[in-house]
Structure formats: structure tokens, C-alpha cells
Amino acid sequence: MHRLRTCAARLRPLTASQAAQTVGQQRPLTVASTGNTRTFQPIRCYSTPVASEPFLNGTSSNYVEEMYFAWLEDPKSVHKSWDVFFRNANAGAPPGAAYQSPLSLSAAPGLAAPQLSSLVGAQPNVEKLVEDHLAVQSLIRAYQIRGHHVAQLDPLGILDADLDSCVPTDIITSSDKLGFYGLNESDLDKVFRLPTTTFIGGSETALPLKEIIRRLEMAYCQHIGVEFMFINDLEQCQWIRQKFETPGVMQFTPEEKRTLLARMIRSTRFEEFLQKKWSAEKRFGLEGCESLIPSLKTIIDKSSENGVEYVIMGMPHRGRLNVLANVIRKELEQIFCQFDSKLEAADEGSGDVKYHLGMYHRRINRVTDRNITLSLVANPSHLEAVDPVVQGKTKAEQFYCGDNDGKRVMSILLHGDAAFAGQGIVYETFHLSDLPSYTTHGTVHVVVNNQIGFTTDPRMARSSPYPTDVARVVNAPIFHVNADDPEAVIYVCKVAAEWRATFHKDVVVDLVSYRRMGHNEMDEPMFTQPLMYKQIKKQKPVLQKYAEKLIAEGVVSRQEYEEEISKYDKICEEAYARSKDEKILHIKHWLDSPWPGFFTLEGQPKSMSCPSTGLSEEDLTHIGQVASSVPVEDFTIHGGLSRILKGRGEMIRNRTVDWALGEYMAFGSLLKEGIHVRLSGQDVERGTFSHRHHVLHDQNVDKRTCIPMNHISPDQAPYTVCNSSLSEYGVLGFELGFAMASPNALILWEAQFGDFHNTAQCIIDQFICPGQAKWVRQNGIVLLLPHGMEGMGPEHSSARPERFLQMCNDDPDVMPNITEDFAVRQLYDCNWIVVNCSNPGNYFHVMRRQILLPFRKPVRPHTLMDVYRDLNVHVWLQAGVDANISRTHFQRLIPDGGVAAERPEEVKRLIFCTGKVYYELTKERKNRGMEGTVAIARMEQLSPFPFDQVKAEVERFCNADLVWCQEEHKNQGYYDYVKPRIRTTINRSKGVWYAGRESAAAPATGNKNTHLMELRRFLDTAFDLDAFKDQQ
Ligand SMILES: Cc1ncc(C[n+]2csc(CCOP(=O)(O)OP(=O)(O)O)c2C)c(N)n1
Ligand SMILES: [Mg+2]
Description:
The chain has 35 helices and 30 strands. It has an eight-stranded mixed sheet, with helices on both faces. Helix 24 (729-741) runs parallel beside helix 25. It binds thiamine diphosphate (TPP) and magnesium ion. Thiamine diphosphate binds next to helix 14.
């Protein structure tokens, strides 16, 4: 086959007679016009049988392969010309000799190979002509595939953007290379017919070879390197070819050039102004890639022209202040005052450095005269971590405004070259880009490729040729561009925006640039990049180069240029003067996602109370019925599932619920109240433990599904439940972003098992835990983390509650004032809520409380794997707690309500615990007949700590010693968190003893026997009333 491919590479679709009469003919039209957008019809369809295609139409080696396999199966199934070709090739004809002119086709089939060989060369002129045409076609294709490798992308002219100095053999850098194609210098003036896969001809269908090469050079080897030939879709490839190959396509009007110059002035002079005023401050300036600003503005202008109203952006440190000033148009004085160390913070929390803050701004786009909202999402230092967050927020904004195909809301993501290549989250984010529940219908990625990451040379920082190769996995075209050519930059940005508007897929603009200063303005780059920086010092700034070009062209005069500079400098100076008046820094002004109407005008919660989370019996019954039915006609579900639904119906009749039904009722009731619910994560639709079944699958019809929860009532909010890609970092980030967009939605992410959250640790540590403190941004995301020691080994056991508890912001040593609104105020003050529900009723209530609270906090309930499985049935969502079900609520602590409570003073031990160990403890207590001597209280909300209720419980069992019992190891779980807080509650009057597994490195043993022995041991300790005598 390899030999056939070699032959095929030399073929081109042109008969000799066609070749002779090409000049002046129109190329066959492949463009269909549909309204404003032009779409390309596929030129060829590969449907089987491929037989009817004649030999001379074959254009690609894949195609030849297909043809070959069809021929192998049945030589008659292909066109005669192919039959002859394959028989000749199989008979050993060398490349170029297997082809027979169609003129001899009639004779061919009957001829044996030796006879055929006598025909080869029988018409030497025709054959040479065809071969030369085929060669030219290969040459064109070579430029389309590999032209970017020789494009002049590095403004410094010292590095190869693809890290490879070799020039591909098939790119014609000198006339002797024509030999690769069997051509020579004398062919340069010959005219060749152009194939339909190129647009270099413009209105011409044939060109001299010399001109073909020149035009290919112009299209692919100047300041733009286009990487796109890996895209599987022919229509998309044609679209790109047309955008870059059509002669004269990169034309700018004088007006456009002047606008570009003005934008370059702003970008450059902004950095110069900051450098002049605060030379000793870090700002991660944009010097060396100033064309980023016009590039972003072009993408936004073009997108606005195409109907986009809202652009959500995420970006790292480099040039961020410049983007805020000149793209988002944050008031300059607000930026400048951030440099003032005397500025006091008005808001609570830590705040963040100026180059991490977010922004939200609605304004008129001056170019299109349309409204546009721009939001830059606040981010941590952790590079690229913001990517999925931006995507999630974008998806949410699209969802809430009914923008189903991303025509009104879009995202732009900026990247550094080193981070884009090195950070895995980039890949995880790309993999969400085309999934139905996660797509944002195309993101424009812009890489500030300054060819360095801090002090590391790209040759040491990546294994891929370009930093952008990760984008190839989703077939995103990649436009590399020399950032010192502002017009080329603007052109690719226009194409990128059009690409997104046309195909609604991701696209990458790679601004190949340099970094004029060190990593930050204090850094000495000559330590590590001496040669590069010697060159940089010689490099004329891009603004100066572009201004000189426009002055030479007569587009602007030097005076106009200088006036434009003075005008912007004056704007900066005036803003600087105003910034001196700012005495207080309001982080609130830097909010990226305002929630209009949710807070008071001062940004406070509208109340400090939480209504009952209970529901009427009627509502519970109704939702329960939906949960146990198939609301669609002629829909066949699996027999096992029918039994599960029947079981649910039974529970409704018995007024009991299991975990899945409790969750169903929580979600269903919120949907009924108009609250959107979105549950996302791996296999959440069915549920890892096969308990949920929120999506029913028709057993007879492929892809026919039904989500009963969307059939609760006609005016309900929609329910989204989606199995995610196998990613935690990307998907949790995405859901966090989704939850940012609106407070009126319950957004949940579930880990397959709790411990898998650690691959998303950055989102937890950098965004969820401190998000409000850093960026005054609340977020009500729910993390469902299955947890429980069940002898399943070190993995799949622990959701690592100790980590979440360690990051809670409450003070273990201070007993808070117990006021009437204590429970809610405590929630308001905390950074997040950690709960561990021991029954489905409490899970139901805590889910509803998330939404009924007048503010939003992330919550992290452990969901108990055991409870999923044992169908631990509870009576009608705690109806027993309150006779009137509509007044029930989440219980932060479930006190002992059994025999021990009857004579509390006789109780010798009060055991506090949380989660599933409660069931082990009650069983053991019963077995030992100690119901009257040992009380057991369940802490359902660990953080914020229920100081008031712990206090009440300790006072009730006043003669009891206190034990914390957990199934986790001592250095894990809850002990380190609860112990000091219980001690503070009781004014350190008693000890808090420990019953649980010993300290260990791994979360659980892999040996079932050891697991059970450990359990036995700590239960013995928990019920041995003398166990702690020696420690008193
Ligand atoms: C996840 C992560 N690792 C390390 C760092 C430290 N760091 C900050 S900037 C930087 C270099 C980034 O290089 P690049 O992505 O090319 O951006 P540039 O600074 O060149 O614009 C590094 C390593 C970080 N901020 N985030
Ligand atoms: Mg870099």
C-alpha cells in the first residue's frame, strides 16, 4: 500500500485534454450560498461503492486507499481506469508508470500485465503533462500542510516557532527543490490548472508554476502560519483555504489602519505610563506583545457584528491591567489607585492582587454601535485554572438567556505559551468543548506566545512543536502570527471570530511575540536568556515600526501620530490625578458576576433568616409519584428499573423515603419553585451506586431517553442532569463557573467517589474555599462526595473531610455569642459549609436550605455510600421531628432521643459522631444493652460548628464523659477539627476522648479482615466506660 500511496501522491485530477484547455476557464463552483453565510458543499462523497469515480478524480492518498480496498474485494467495483492502475501497480510498475491514459482504457481491461507495460510511455507527452499536474497539486497541498513551518513567525528572528529549524523537503525554498516533485526550473513558466482545493488563483483557474509558488508563499509562509490540514471536515478546510489563499484578501482601508494604530498607541503607552509612575511595581506588562489589545478588540468587534452581546473572558497575569483598561474599559483611576499602598480596603476578606481581579462592564461597542457586556473572570495565580470556570459561566449565561447555539454569548480565553503547553487543565477544558451539556459553541483562544515561561526556554518546556498543539485534539484551527505585524494579527483575529460565528467551534490565535522585560518588571532576564535579550534590546518596538509604515504609506502624518500619543498620555495623566482622590479600595467594584436583585443595594443579604425547608405532604406525594413513574408513552424501561420505580411507589404509600427519593424530592421541589437544578459529574445520570436513575433509557430505541424530573409541572424550571467527561478538575471548574452566573439555581457536582475530588484540588483550594474572601463573590455550588469506610481499600473510602474542615474559617478557640439568628449568621460568616448527613431527610433539607438561604455558600455534604446501598429508609423526611411537616428543617445536630434521653443524668458517656458510624454505634450499644448509659449525638453539620447545640447536649448529659467516635483514622476525618471546638464549648471543663482508628498514612486498609478488626477495636473502646480512666 505504501507504494500505492507514493503513486497516489503524484496524481492529480486532470485529464490531458482538460489540461490543454484550462486557461481562462472558471473553476467549478463548490460554494453554496445560504443567506449571509457561505457554506462549502463537500466536493466528494466517499460513500460505498466508490466504484463510479474515474481514476482521474482521485486526489488524496486516503481516497486511493479506499479505492484500492474496494478493488481488492472486487476489481469490477471500481472504475476501469482504477482497475488498470491497480493491476499495473500490483504487477510492479514503478511510481508514475502505473497510470494509463483514459484513451487506452477501452483496451486496458483485457490486457495482461506484460502487454500493459508496453503501453506505458506510449503517449509520453500526455503522461508527463498529467504527472506534472499531479506534482503541482502535491506541491500546493504541501504548502497547505507544512507552510507554517517556514512562516516568519518570530519577531526576533532567532527562534523557530515550531522549535525545529529544518525546512520541510517539499517546500520550495530554492529551485533545486523542484526536483522532489520531478519538476525543474524550466517548468516554472509552464501554466498549470489549479485543483478545486486551492483558492490561490482568485478568479483564475490556471497559473504558471512560478506564480503558484509565489502565491503559496504569500498565503502560508509570511507572517501568518496556518495549521488546519488535520481538520477532518472538508468544508471547514475549504473555508480556511479561502480565507488565507484568496489573493488580496488581507486588505485594510486607511480608516482601519488608523484605528489599529490608535489601539496600538493605547496598548503601548498604557504600559509605558505604568512603568514611568511605578517602576518598582510588578504589573506583568505586555511589552513585546502589544498587539494583544487590538487583537482582542477585533475579536470582540467582529463578534458583536455577528450578534454577540456578552463576552466572558479569562486570562493570566500577562497584560491583564492593559486588557482591563483598554479592552474592558475599566476606569483608569480605578486601576491606578490599586498601586497606592495607602489605600484602605472597604470590604471584608483578604482581597487579591490587582492582576487577579475580575471585572464586569456593559457598554456600547463603538465599532458596531451595539450593546456589549464584557466580563473578565477573577482568577488565582494558578495558570489556566480559570479556563473551565469561564466555560461554565459562559454556558450558564447562554442557558439563562435561551442562547442555545452560542450566538449571543461567547467566551475568549487567553493563555501564556508555557502554561498552555504544560497545564493539563487546558486539555480537560478542550474536551468539554463539544459535549452537549458543556459546549459553549466555540471559544476563541488567544496565546500570548512570548517564547518564554518565567526563565524557561520553550525548548525545555514542551515536547510538542508548538505550544498550541493541544488544540489539535478537538480539530481547532490554529493561526500562528508574528505579533510584530499588527495587520496580520488583526486579519487572523477577524478570521478567528468569523470561524467561531460560522462553525461554532474552538479556534486558536497564537501571537508569536517576545517579552521585553523580565518575567515581571523586577526580574533580570539576562541571567538566563542572554542571547535572546541581547536581540530584544535591539528590537524596535512594534508601535514605532507600524507607525513608520503608515507614515511611509501616507495613511497618517507624523504629526497626527504624535498627537494621538499625546491625547492618550493626557487621558492617563488626568486619570492618575483623579486616582489620588481614591482613599478606599472597593473590591466590589471588581466583581465579575453581579447578581442583580439578590442582595440589598448595599450588597447585603435581604434577611438573616432561613424559612422552613419542609414541604407539604401533597407536594411530597406528587414528586414521589413522578419519581416512581415513566411519564412518556410507549417507553420501555429495563425490568430491574421497573422494580426500583415500583419500590419508590411503595415507599410513597408507606410515607418513607430512601436516599435517592430524598434527593428527588429536594430537586423536584426546587424545580417546582422555579429554581434550575443542574447535576453534573461522572455517571451521575444513573448514579455510581445505581440508586438515582434520573435518566431513563428506552430499551428498544437507541438514544431515546426520558428525564421524569422534567415532567413535574408545566411551569417548572428545567432540570439538567449530565454525565460528564472523565475529568474532575475541568468539570468541577466548569460547574463552579456555572454556579457563578445566578444565585437562583442549585448547581451540584458529584465525584464518582469522594477521594477523586483531589484531582480538582486547585478549584477547591483556589476558588471555592477562598473565593468570597478574595473576590467578594459568593457561590452556592454543592460538592457531593461519597464517603465511608467499607473495607474497600485505601481508595474509594475517604472524601478527605479533614482537608475541608482544616480550611474552614471559624476560630476553634472562641465561643461565639449565641444570638437568635446564630445558626444563619454563622452560615453567613463562614467560607463554606461541611455537612455529613446520616439520613435522607436531612440531606433533603440541606439541599433545599442551599436555595432558601438569603446568601450563597459552597456546601460539601458527604454522601454516604452505605446509605445509597442499604436503602436506609427514613420516615417521611423527619415527619416525626415536627408534627407539621411544613415546619421541618435541617438538623445541624441530631440529639439522642432514645432511652438515654429519658434519664439523662444517669448517662455515663456521651458519644459525638457523624455519618454512618452512628449506625454501627447504635447497633453495638443495643448489643451491649447500654442504651441507658451511653448517649449518641450525631453532628450533621460539622462546619460551621454547632456550638449552641453541642453545648445543650453536654449540659443535658451532665454526668457523662465525652467521646468523639469516628471510623476514620485519627489524623484524618473530623477529630482534629471537633475536639478543640467541643473543648471551647464546655470551657475546657472536661476532656474529649477519642475512639476511632489509629493514625495512618493511607485512608483505609486494603485487607477486609484488618478493616473489621479495627472496627471492633474502636467500638470496644467507645463502649468501655473505663477506657479513658488513665488519661483523666
Ligand atoms: C500552575 C502554576 N504553576 C506555576 C506558576 C508560576 N508561574 C507564574 S508565571 C509562570 C510562567 C508562565 O509562562 P507563560 O505561560 O509562558 O506566561 P508568560 O509569563 O510568559 O506570559 C510560572 C511558571 C503558576 N502561576 N501557576
Ligand atoms: Mg510565555
